[in-house]
Design a protein that fits this description.
cytoskeleton, 3-stranded antiparallel β-sheet, 3 strands, 340 residues, CH_dom, mainly alpha, 16 helices, cytoplasm, 2 domains, actin binding, CH_dom_sf, Actin-binding Protein, T-fimbrin, domain 1
Length: 340
Amino acid sequence: MAGLLCGTKRKKQVSDLHEEGKNAINAPMLPIGTDIHPEDTLLEENAERIMLDPTSRENLKFKDLLKVLIDWINSELEEERIIVKDLEEDCYDGQVLQKLFEKLSGRKLNVAEVTQSEIGQKQKLQTVLEAVNELLRPHGWTIEWSVDSIHSKNLVAIVYLLVALAMHFQAPIRLPEHVSVQVVVVKKREGILQTALVTKELTSTTEMMLGRFERDAFDTLLDHAPDKLNVVKTSLITFVNKHLNKLNLEVTELESQFADGVYLVLLMGLLEDYFVPLYNFFLTPENFEQKVHNVAFAFELMQDGGLKKPKARPEDVVNLNLKSTLRVLYNLFTNYKNSE
């Protein structure tokens, strides 16, 4: 009888908790379409849980940010034969974050290589995040992540962490600007679940993000000496035409004529003295994706030629971002200015 009463009591507690979750789901402050499971609302008093609003998950700039971060991780961990496809599913156990931090920092962490249990995964995360926080906190970073948030596959926390690492280590990528998402915050106060919709800024402007680091010559040039910009552009136009003229091609506008990537690919072939097979790129690109493919392919050719991976993103060049285009061309100029 005691066991029966005990079982009945437990069932009632579970039922009450699910009812509590249901009430939270139906709370008037929740945005329409937000998908919250009852287990997401089983909170202790004064505890809170943050969930990404579904509409933000479909935001194109947010999706672009995720892709940039995934491509960056895969590039960094290529030698480890690690391939990340989904940040939530691939980063929560600490394995990828450990390898990424070790690669970026050059520091080996004292953790088990493979951990299957939840306790082991959280212990690894604890070690990794302690090392990350120890590195970032002195530089003024706000810690927007924790062991529990990462392990519970909180995508916003994971992205915050990766953006911070990318910026601190000056990753050769261009993060999309002004990426914000809305999150649903569920709190428990005096036994009552309260919900609110909060906006989280994941990235700001490129200038502000780069402001943490040493600004490059083009930042200074555009901000303080725009009158000299035409001198630089003229020099770069002279340089590229010296080579493109061999194919009876001529550039007059740097921003627009390199935006589809075709001239960049052809220029790399001329500078490195080889023919680029036409099947490797789109000679007459018809859409944004094909243009991005061309610019990205040109970046690969640059790396094959011994240059560092450009800090500009292919998307920035395609979108006629002047500074990004100048940085790419100036990098070629400094490396090939004496080439005939």
